Model the fold of this input.
Amino acid sequence: MADNQIAFWDSSALVPLCARQKQTPWSVKYSNQFPIMVVWWGTWVEVQSGLAREKVLRSHEKTVALQRLAQIRTSWSEILPLDAVKDHATDLLWKYSLRSADSWQLAAALRWCGEQPRNQPFVCFDERLIGAALEVGFKVLSHLA
Done:
């Protein structure tokens, strides 16, 4: 597959691939456009956290959502929590007033693109993280952007 099929995915855009939400059509569109997903190492837990907050999920829906997540996980690449990523995440907290997980996301995305975010696709449905990602130069793909 070509490099133009790769994007960094925030957890906020992965949750709708696992459980039906109003953003699901957008996530499906972007997953078709960018089937090679790069994520930060905490994505597995963060997506499950998002699913757990979906109190309307019935037992069967939860099972299906977790199966979908497990399937997606088999093909994504994770950016590991190296010291350089940790240090960058700390700097981003102060620069953009991000939540800790969002700073990890953005630092991992910057690591993925070799600190060259210009026009690199970043799939995200979180307003605060979208703002920071746009400011550093990513091409944000979202129903909000």
